[in-house]
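User: Here's a protein and a ligand (S-adenosylmethionine). What would the complex look like?
Assistant: Let me lay out the input and then the predicted complex.
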Amino acid sequence: MLDIARKEFARYVYQLRPSLDPVLVDMEALAKEKRFPIVGPLVGQLIEVLTYLQQPRRVFEMGSGYGYSAYWFARAMPADGEVICTGSARSAERARQFFTRGRLAHKLRYEVGDALEVIDRIPGDFDAILIDIDKHQYPEAWRKASKRVRVGGLIITDNLLRFGFEKDHTPLNDDPDPGVQGLKEFARLAYADPNFSTTIVTVRDGVGLSVRIA
Ligand SMILES: C[S@@+](CC[C@H](N)C(=O)[O-])C[C@H]1O[C@@H](n2cnc3c(N)ncnc32)[C@H](O)[C@@H]1O
């Protein structure tokens, strides 16, 4: 039931999309060719709507790959906004090429390295943080991100229902896999944190939205 609804929703939204930014089209094609797990256009458009609403000037991404989700942020951020990406040197180079083509290079800052380490060496708060790293690292990502997003800021977390709904249709299943456990622990931490108001929207395989309220 849920799967059918999701597929129909995705199809419906795809056919509504106006003519697309050719850079995004190429990034999506590259993901298909390389089987690289980008957030995809449904989550991309959610990022865009949230970015227009929140107008963040400083975004930190944990897990940027070649910059697909970052590109959605950058398109919608104010002209002086900056999205700080994390990942490999090869991904950084690709991201720079895509952002340059899209005339958004001035908004891109790519820090090569492990996001959980990079965040510790960049001072200051962030208006928004995207979490999209390996799933077993999610609890640590929450612990770090929740301290670094400003009050009123937003943490967007991809894939929160990935295992629960895609594997056996049971939310929060008992699979001992570290990725499953990481997502479960993340959800527990986020919902229990009194400084945040958290929800999970069922776009694609679940996107966490956590607003810092105190
Ligand atoms: C799921 S992909 C998505 C990338 C990007 N958010 C997008 O939508 O295109 C996550 C990427 O982050 C990388 N990654 C995983 N753990 C990481 C970490 N701790 N720090 C930086 N990158 C990481 C993965 O190798 C992969 O390239």
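Summary: Residues 37-39, 63-65, 68-69, 86-87, 114-116, 132-134, 137 surround S-adenosylmethionine (CB under 6 Å).
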